[in-house]
Recover the amino acids of this structure.
């Protein structure tokens, strides 16, 4: 619970900073739009900001050893190993996770008036909480804790875009994008008092579909294949002179999906 509260506090702090910086930046750009360079205007017109629902499947293996030899017959030693797989549900409300994403895209090649190849540059922060349930190591030892993942990344994506996002014209109501890219990302995992922080470059696939009706809105679905280490640690806790606990834990995700609701915040400057 302590680690969960700490991670939630960290996430809230990051989100508030992210929101304030983004909000201030957008207000500044809107006030000074006429004085901006052409490339800055294009970046603003294709800027987006959204909320995410990350979905993970985590594979956890833990070796749990308690030496209670100093306690005599009343405290036998425990040497157990457990393996479990836990998932976060793909249902808002049941999924105890949250995330935010923001970015913009830049035209690389114009294919037609309503289609283009673009480089999409974004950043995101996510907090995923997975209910692992009760894990029994022995008749007297058990653990019930959530697995918590804190993730920050910068997706760089080559995308095909069609509709209003390519033409920058509100008459083209449909928004569609598909692409692939790479994500430099930092992952932090916490479970049962053991945690870890790791950096990884991950490939990913993404698709978006949406519409323009006063505001621009898109549903964004991203998939990250492959495994990612979240915890690979050995911890030792000595309780007085009679008991020593050693925990060896390895946990990794086996691919994850992120669903986002994205708002095109520059639509007001489209034709």
């Amino acid at each position: 619970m302590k680690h969960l509260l700490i991670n939630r506090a960290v996430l809230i702090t990051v989100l508030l900073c992210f929101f304030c910086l983004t909000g201030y930046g957008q207000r500044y750009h809107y006030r000074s739009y006429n004085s901006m360079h052409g490339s800055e205007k294009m970046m603003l017109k294709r800027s987006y900001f959204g909320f995410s629902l990350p979905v993970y499947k985590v594979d956890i293996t833990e070796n749990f050893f308690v030496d209670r030899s100093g306690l005599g017959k009343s405290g036998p030693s425990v040497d157990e190993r457990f393996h479990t797989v836990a998932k976060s549900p793909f249902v808002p409300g049941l999924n105890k996770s949250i995330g935010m994403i923001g970015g913009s895209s830049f035209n690389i090649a114009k294919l037609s008036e309503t289609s283009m190849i673009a480089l999409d540059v974004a950043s995101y922060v996510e907090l995923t909480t997975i209910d692992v349930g009760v894990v029994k190591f022995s008749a007297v030892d058990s653990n019930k804790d959530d697995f918590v993942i804190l993730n920050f990344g910068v997706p760089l994506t080559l995308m095909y875009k069609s509709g209003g996002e390519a033409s920058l014209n509100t008459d083209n109501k449909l928004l569609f994008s598909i692409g692939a890219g790479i994500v430099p990302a930092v992952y932090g995992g916490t479970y049962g008092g053991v945690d870890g922080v790791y950096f990884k470059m991950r490939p990913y696939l993404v698709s978006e579909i949406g519409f323009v009706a006063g505001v621009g809105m898109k549903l964004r679905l991203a998939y990250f294949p492959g495994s990612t280490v979240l915890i690979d640690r050995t911890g030792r806790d000595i309780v007085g002179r009679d008991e020593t606990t050693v925990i060896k834990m390895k946990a990794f995700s086996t691919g994850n999906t992120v669903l986002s609701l994205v708002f095109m915040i520059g639509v007001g400057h489209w034709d």
In short: The beta strands are 48-67, 78-87, 96-112, 115-136, 142-153, 156-163, 174-191, 194-213, 215-239, 243-264. The first strand starts at residue 48 and ends at 67.
